[in-house]
Amino acid sequence: MSVLFTSISENNPVKSGDAEALIEPLGLTIDPSESDDFQTLLAAVHDCAEGVAALPDYQPIPDQLKYPRENIRRPSKEEQVFGQAWAHRFLIRGKEGGVLTGKSVSLKDVIAVAGVPQLLGSDIIPSWTPSTDATVVTRLLEAGADIHGTSTCENHCHSTSSYTSAQGTIENPHATGYSAGGSTSGGAALVAAELVDITIGGDQGGSIRVPASFCGCVGLKPTFGRVPFTGVSSGDSLNDHVGPLARTTMEVATCLDTISGYDGIDDRSLGSSKPGSTDFATSIKGTERLDGLRIGILKEGFEHDAVSSSVRHSVLTAAKKFEDLGATIEEISLPDHLHGPAIWTIQQRMAGAQTLLGQNTGRRGLYMTEMEQARLPWTDEGFQRAFPSTKNVIINGLYLMSRFPGLYGKTANIGRQLSDKYQALFEKFDAIVMPTTPVVAPKHGKRGQPVESLKPSMGLTINTAIFNVTGHPALSIPIGFAPAKEDDQIMLPVGMQIVGGLWQEEKVLRVGHVWETHYDWKKMQFTTDQN
């Protein structure tokens, strides 16, 4: 439908030749006989845009009288831990009497908190300050949690390492000089060190599960849409997940009960349950056995070349213990699992570039317009400050969109096919297990040339990114320690990933809970390299 107009404003900036200039880079032209009409139509849409831009935005208004923000500040040197784990310190006290009363929480620094500057691990632009609270923030406070601050994330969340944030490096709480994982790096370190009970992270390729694995936490990427993404900075909306990290599966389950359910805003969560209707914590509480459950050991998850022999041995040893708990285990194969990283890469690069450039559209939800106004338009000065991973997303995305038109849609279709193939497996198996990460935490990389800067993250998401594509719930639990690659005297946590059918978080949490209540992972050390 054409734009309706009665007259063009006197100050309208559209001039002759503007329509032609817009389509010239596409190799397209306008017939000279139509040029004046398209100029008029372009001028009309400009006036329309000016009118919409002048309207007030529509952001949810948080109750800051009920939940005041106390002492918002950048942490002092004395307050900082593990390098730069905190982004901002503050306190918001939760309502008394909820299921999370007495629990301390940090939030990944991509989750909106009204009045708290957000850094996104970047210095491309100055920090911006949201005027609203993310849905998960409101729900945590209503459940009684006290929020103690935002925790540092990696640069624009484009890394699974923990040295890319413009605010500084995050140290692994088990060994200085080693990665805490990313991009929920600061929060995982805080949880592992018992400085907070729970952190809320974002996961678009493994950004909850990778730091959980490296730091020795329990981290859950729920089913796509289980938890509303409202008020969380997006990358690719098909891969967007938000979820909890804690020290126990029970804490993760209690938090998931609190934050899940459609909020009337985010269309990703249209298929989720009614808020407050789940009871994962109660359903797994007191469960001591896994009798009758069938657990698959995914061959491709273990036999990938990137998986170290010590991690393979550790996770296989831990998985075999399910038999002692009553479950039946069986090796299974899904060769298409190996396509996951490539499918994820295409989706993330194309949609990620559009998001960074302010061109992503098509979802019903809360748009972070204040952030977009601060970030756009890009300047070369800002681009030069970006970490190589962010530059690479823009360059890759623009290339793919220009050279492979229609490829994003095809990857979305193939991703749905992968999801269907996994769902077929979950008709026979209650859960599938594999290593969360192929190695224990590596040493920090360093900022240098692009390939050098990106190398420490390469290959870390071979078993995690596919489940962002398929949407299946995936839980990482710590199952012991294995030696660092560089020094066999340094022992670092190993994570086992437990994956379930869509909307089957209860099974995933039950499997993790029963394992951790029978075995003390902190006393389990795997020092051999046998297969």
- Helix count equals 17
State the low-pLDDT regions, or none.
none
CATH topology of the largest domain: Amidase signature (AS) enzymes
- Mean model confidence by pLDDT: 95
Rg from C-alpha positions?
24 Å
Rough outline? globular
Tell me the CATH architecture of the largest domain: Alpha-Beta Complex
Strand content: 5-15%
Sequence of strands across the biggest β-sheet: 1-2-4-3-7-9-8-13-14-12-10-11
Walk me through the structure.
The chain is α/β, with parallel strands linked by helices and 531 residues long. The chain folds into 2 domains: 55 residues, no CATH class; 454 residues, Amidase signature (AS) domain (Amidase signature (AS) enzymes, Alpha-Beta Complex), CATH 3.90.1300. The chain has 17 helices and 14 strands. It has a 12-stranded mixed beta sheet with strand order 1-2-4-3-7-9-8-13-14-12-10-11, sandwiched between helices. A two-stranded antiparallel sheet has the order 5-6. Helix 3 links the parallel strand 3 and strand 4. The longest helix is centred in the first third of the chain and has 19 residues. The chain is globular. The mean pLDDT is 95. It comes from Penicillium frequentans. Pfam families: Amidase. GO terms for molecular function: catalytic activity. This is Amidase domain-containing protein.
